Amino acid sequence: MLSTDSSNKTVKNSNSTFVKILAIISIARWYNIFLISISLYAIQIFIFENSIRFLFSSSGINLHLYVLSIDLIVIGGYLINAFYDFEKDMINQPEKTYFDRLVSKRSCLNIYMLCNVFGLLIAYLISNKILLFSAILISVLWIYSHKLRKKVLLGEISASLLLISLFLGLGILNNKFDLTLAIFSTYIFTIDLTREIVKKMISLKGDLIVGEKSIPIYFGIKNCKYIIFFLMISSMVAILTLLPIIIYKPFSYYFIVAFFIISVSIYLLHFAKNKSQYEKINSIYKLLLGLAIISITLY
């Protein structure tokens, strides 16, 4: 009888540990980490190297280390976000955060610190420049989580800038400035920022209920639509700037299609009045970001 109870307790403990690991993976937004990793590899292979064999050569070791370092640092960023939002999410989104609540604030902080330490150690193995870049990235991620994320519009701009900084870090890794990558990163910035603000329009009702100041609440719905419109036009300008450089490459096909898709989004934005209409625009921009990653393989 005692043996049975002991074995049941062991099974329960192992199940509990497994569920907590799944919860940590959920908090760390594994899907976003996967997309970032794929994007970094695609940019390195198709923009800087033009050869997939690079991944299996000794020269590719630094790239693998860079991707691993960035992944750990970004995971740490998601965990520190969860740390600062723990109480707020418990009140505002109890059902959504039930799984995440299996991991305590202390565990989030401890794993966050471990991820950053290992991320810096790996960066140190690459070069002093990448080490400095990683240290700055960690610092800015903490500032973003602690302060900037709560600021109207500044939080969304900071999040999008942090995203493209991961790609521009490849320029430091390769000791090379690539104009195509710079313009492509500008395009991704405008697309990501547009989607972030559209998401605020979708969550407008919930933000009003909990008393949270978001962009449409702070600036007004009409002005928020003007901001989205300006960003859509900015992304189209980025496309028109990039096209003459890549017009003879298959890479250009994506941007020609994207130009027309954004034009359709502007039309939808003009008539958008309710949550479902903004959700359509959000879905379109999700598609644009996903296709942008795939399009790198055409460079």
Sequence of secondary-structure elements = HHHHHHHHHHHH
Number of E-type strands: 0
The best one-word shape is globular
Number of domains: 2
The helix content, as a percent range, equals over 70%
Q: Mean pLDDT score, rounded?
A: 82
CATH class category label of the largest domain: Mainly Alpha
| Structural Rg | 21 Å
Low-confidence stretches: 2-15, 95-99
Report, as a whole number of angstroms, the end-to-end distance: 66 Å
β-sheet strand percentage:
under 5%
Class based on secondary structure composition and strand pairing: mainly alpha
The description of the largest β-sheet is: none
Description of the molecule:
There is one protein chain. The chain is mainly α and 299 residues long. It folds into 2 domains: 17-152, Orthogonal Bundle (Tetracycline Repressor, domain 2), CATH 1.10.357; 178-299. 82% of the residues lie in helices and 0% in strands. The protein contains 12 helices and no strands. The chain has helices at 2-27, 30-49, 61-92, 105-126, 128-146, 154-174, 179-202, 204-210, 215-219, 221-246, 251-271, 275-295. The model is unreliable at 2-15 and 95-99 (pLDDT under 50).
List the helices and strands and how they pair.
Elements: H1 2-27, H2 30-49, H3 61-92, H4 105-126, H5 128-146, H6 154-174, H7 179-202, H8 204-210, H9 215-219, H10 221-246, H11 251-271, H12 275-295
Give me some keywords for this one.
299 residues; disordered N terminus; 2 domains; mainly alpha; 82% helix; Tetracycline Repressor, domain 2
